[in-house]
C-alpha cells in the first residue's frame, strides 16, 4: 500500500501498524474507522441475539403466540446456546475472510433472524417448536459480535487490548438498546404491538452491513482471520480452568443481564415496564463495569480482581436465594443488579487474565528453545478457545436464574461460584511456590 492515508481497496497487502511512521501517516485513522464500524456490527449482532429476552415478556399478551413459563425460559436460553454452537463453526467457515468481508457477511446474516421473528410474532397459535427454531437463528448475532473484535488486528500490539475493549463495550450495549426498545413498547403501546421490536433491527442491519461494505477495509488473511486453536488444547489444564472462570464471569454477565426481566416478571409478577427498566439498569451498570474490570486487572492483576468478583457473586447469590425464599422483591432486584455488576467486573478481569496466562506460558516455551512465532500462535489460539465457552455459560446462568424451582438453581450457582473462586485463588492468585516446590508458578510473568 503506497498511500496509507487512502482507503484500502480491496486489501492491504502491507499493513505495518508497528511502524510509527506508517501509523502516523494515516494508519491510525484507517484503524479507528474500521474499529468503529466493526463495533457497530457487533452492537447490532448483540441486540439481535438479545431481542428474545425482551420479546418473551410480551408473548402472553395480545393475539400472538403464548408459550408457558417453561417455554419462555427456553426461548430466552436458545439464542445464547445456538450462538455458542455457531461461533466455532462460523470461524472455520469464514476463516479466509478478513476485515470488511467478514463483517459484511456476519452482519448481513442477521437479516434472517430479524425477518423470521417479525413473521412468527404475528402468527396466533404458533407452536413452541417454531418459536424455538426462530429464536435459534438469533444465535447468528453472537457470531457478528465475536467478529467485531477482529478489528483489533488493525492496531499495534500495544493498543490491541484497548481496541478489543472498545469493540466489546459497543457490542454489550446492544442488549441495553433492545431493552430500551422494550420499555418504549410497553409504555407507549401497552405491549399490544411488539413485533416492531424485531422489525426495527432491519434498518440497523442494513446500516451496519452497508457501512462495513463501503467504508471498512480488508487485511491479509494471516492477520485478519481468526486463529484456530492448536492441537492439544483440550489436554491443557489452563484451557479448562480459564474456561470455567470465563463461564462464571462473562457467561453470568450475559445470562443474568438477559434473564433479569423474565425473573422479575415471572417470579415476582412485576409489570413489564418495571422488569425491563430494572434489567436495563443492570445491563448498563454491568457494561460499564466490564472495562473497569480490565483496568483494575491491569493495575492489581487479573487473578485478584477475578477472585474478588467471584467471592462477591457467591455471596450475592446466597442473598438472592434468601430473598427469593422470603419474596423480598426489592432486596432481590438490588442484589441481582449487584451480581450483574460483579459479573461484568469479573468478565473484564478474565479478559486480561486469559491472554496473560497463555503469554506467560509462551514466554516459558521460548526460553526453553521453542520457536517464538509458534509459541505465540498457540497462545492466541488457546485464548480464543477459552472465549467460546462464555456463550454456553450465559445460557446456563439464564436457565438457572429463570428455573421453575429457583432456590435449588441459585444454591447450585452459589456452589459453582465458590468452586471457581477456589480455582482462581489456588491456580492464579496465590503466591507462586518456592523454587523446587510444587508446580511452575506464573508470578514471574506479571500475572499478579
TrEMBL record:
This is MFS transporter. The chain crosses the membrane at residues 35-59, 71-90, 102-122, 128-156, 163-187, 193-214, 239-264, 270-289, 301-325, 331-364, 385-404, 410-428. The keyword Ribonucleoprotein does not apply. Keywords: Membrane, Transmembrane, Transmembrane helix. Pfam families: MFS_1 (PF07690). The keyword Membrane applies. It comes from Streptomyces roseoverticillatus. It comes from the Bacteria.
Amino acid at each position: 500500500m503506497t498511500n496509507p492515508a487512502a482507503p484500502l481497496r480491496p486489501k492491504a497487502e502491507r499493513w505495518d501498524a508497528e511502524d510509527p511512521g506508517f501509523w502516523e501517516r494515516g494508519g491510525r485513522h484507517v484503524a479507528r474507522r474500521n474499529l468503529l464500524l466493526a463495533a457497530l456490527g457487533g452492537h447490532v449482532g448483540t441486540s439481535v441475539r438479545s431481542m428474545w429476552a425482551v420479546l418473551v415478556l410480551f408473548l402472553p399478551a395480545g393475539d400472538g403466540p403464548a408459550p408457558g413459563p417453561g417455554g419462555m425460559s427456553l426461548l430466552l436460553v436458545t439464542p445464547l446456546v445456538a450462538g455458542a454452537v455457531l461461533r466455532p463453526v462460523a470461524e472455520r467457515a469464514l476463516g479466509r475472510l478478513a476485515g470488511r468481508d467478514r463483517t459484511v457477511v456476519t452482519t448481513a446474516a442477521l437479516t434472517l433472524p430479524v425477518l423470521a421473528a417479525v413473521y412468527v410474532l404475528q402468527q396466533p397459535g404458533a407452536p413452541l417448536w417454531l418459536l424455538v427454531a426462530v429464536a435459534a437463528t438469533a444465535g447468528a448475532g453472537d457470531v457478528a459480535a465475536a467478529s467485531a473484535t477482529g478489528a483489533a488486528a488493525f492496531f499495534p500490539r500495544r493498543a490491541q487490548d484497548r481496541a478489543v475493549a472498545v469493540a466489546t463495550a459497543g457490542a454489550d450495549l446492544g442488549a441495553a438498546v433492545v431493552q430500551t426498545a422494550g420499555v418504549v413498547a410497553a409504555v407507549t403501546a401497552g405491549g399490544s404491538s411488539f413485533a416492531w421490536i424485531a422489525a426495527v433491527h432491519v434498518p440497523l442491519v442494513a446500516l451496519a452491513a452497508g457501512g462495513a461494505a463501503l467504508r471498512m477495509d480488508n487485511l491479509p488473511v494471516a492477520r485478519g482471520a481468526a486463529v484456530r486453536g492448536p492441537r492439544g488444547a483440550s489436554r491443557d489444564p489452563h484451557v479448562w480452568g480459564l474456561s470455567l472462570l470465563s463461564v462464571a464471569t462473562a457467561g453470568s454477565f450475559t445470562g443474568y443481564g438477559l434473564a433479569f426481566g423474565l425473573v422479575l416478571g415471572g417470579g415476582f409478577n412485576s409489570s413489564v415496564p418495571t422488569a425491563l427498566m430494572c434489567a436495563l439498569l443492570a445491563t448498563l451498570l454491568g457494561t460499564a463495569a466490564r472495562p473497569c474490570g480490565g483496568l483494575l486487572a491491569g493495575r492489581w492483576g487479573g487473578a485478584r480482581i477475578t477472585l474478588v468478583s467471584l467471592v462477591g457473586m457467591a455471596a450475592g447469590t446466597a442473598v438472592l436465594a434468601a430473598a427469593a425464599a422470603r419474596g423480598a422483591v426489592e432486596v432481590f432486584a438490588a442484589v441481582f443488579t449487584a451480581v450483574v455488576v460483579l459479573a461484568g467486573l469479573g468478565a473484564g478481569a478474565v479478559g486480561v487474565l486469559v491472554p496473560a496466562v497463555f503469554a506467560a506460558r509462551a514466554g516459558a516455551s521460548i526460553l526453553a528453545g521453542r520457536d517464538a512465532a509458534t509459541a505465540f500462535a498457540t497462545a492466541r489460539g488457546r485464548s480464543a478457545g477459552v472465549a467460546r465457552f462464555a456463550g454456553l455459560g450465559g445460557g446456563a446462568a439464564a436457565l438457572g436464574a429463570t428455573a421453575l424451582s429457583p432456590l435449588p438453581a441459585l444454591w447450585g450457582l452459589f456452589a459453582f461460584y465458590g468452586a471457581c473462586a477456589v480455582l482462581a485463588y489456588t491456580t492464579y492468585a496465590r503466591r507462586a511456590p518456592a523454587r523446587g516446590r510444587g508446580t511452575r508458578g506464573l508470578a514471574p510473568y506479571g500475572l499478579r
